TrEMBL record:
Keyword annotations of the record: Membrane, Transmembrane, Transmembrane helix
Organism: Obba rivulosa
Transmembrane domains' residue ranges: 25-42, 63-80, 92-113, 125-149, 169-188, 209-229, 241-259
Protein origin, superkingdom: Eukaryota
Protein name (Swiss-Prot/TrEMBL): Transmembrane protein
Length: 272
């Protein structure tokens, strides 16, 4: 007869450490946001699709619209499927950092094009924003080579994590770009008040400053996890706990920046 005080041995996929359990819950929230955003933007996406022109911003919008949910659906399978072996994970783990680097590159290109456009399409601004974008693309591409499989027990999920804290420059490069675009967008909007005075609330909504600020904020929060919070061990995925949500929200707000443009999207659109 078994002793009533004997501990029940849970399978590995149920016996999760606290940070891994939190990451699974947070990833469910990420998938929910991605699905909801895809649903909510459907009418506006359809209206944009029906326009005859196909400028770069429109093509980028539809790419983000399809690529983001596809990426995180695949990542979700790897994360939650208890049948994934360590061997399969070793062949797959670079999928998320590489796909997210592509996602960020397109999002950042949208931001750069819009800043260039609202500053009257001046060539110096194009060079400056292009240099920031190229820096981000190079840094994220290099950093993809410095990820590894998080050493979890089989059945607990497949997660890619950095080999060292400095790999966080992957996200730092994007955060620098989004900081610059936020500052430049605010400066341009404030300058427009010299022509016509409106309330700051209307100014924010008119120029989509809340969208630029949201992108900056989620990326800054991500920076806290990468560079301030210390993992308890090699199996602790705390550094990457919010990266998926950051990528999804960055994509979501960037698509709204495109939809916020009044008039044509040719050559990045214009200033309101």
């Amino acid at each position: 007869m078994s002793n009533g005080t004997d501990e029940i041995q849970l399978p590995a996929y149920l016996d999760l450490p606290p940070h891994l359990s939190a990451q699974k819950y947070f990833f469910v929230c990420t998938l929910t946001v991605a699905a909801w955003d895809t649903l909510v933007l459907t009418p506006r996406t359809w209206r944009l699709l029906r326009t005859k022109e196909w400028p770069p911003l429109k093509m980028m919008y539809h790419f983000l619209r399809l690529f983001m949910p596809m990426e995180f659906s695949v990542v979700g399978v790897a994360f939650f499927d208890t049948q994934w072996t360590l061997e399969k994970c070793n062949q797959f783990f670079l999928f998320e950092p590489i796909c997210t680097a592509v996602l960020l590159a397109v999002c950042s290109a949208v931001h750069c094009i819009r800043i260039w456009a609202i500053y009257d399409k001046k060539r110096p601004m194009m060079y400056a924003m292009g240099a920031l974008w190229a820096f981000q693309v190079v840094v994220t591409a290099i950093c993809c080579g410095f990820y590894r499989v998080t050493p979890l027990q089989e059945g607990q999920g497949c997660i890619a994590e950095p080999k060292a804290a400095w790999v966080g420059i992957y996200w730092l490069s994007a955060t620098i770009l989004y900081t610059v675009t936020l500052v430049m967008a605010v400066k341009r909007s404030m300058r427009s008040l010299e022509v016509k005075r409106i309330s700051y609330w209307k100014l924010m909504l008119r120029d989509g400053l809340n969208l630029y600020a949201a992108v900056w904020l989620v990326n800054m929060i991500n920076m806290l996890f990468w560079f301030i919070i210390t993992p308890t061990g090699p199996e602790d995925p705390i550094r990457t706990i919010v990266t998926s949500m950051t990528a999804v929200l960055t994509t979501s707000m960037t698509m709204r920046i495109i939809l916020c443009v009044r008039g044509t999207l040719k050559r990045g659109g214009g200033f309101a």
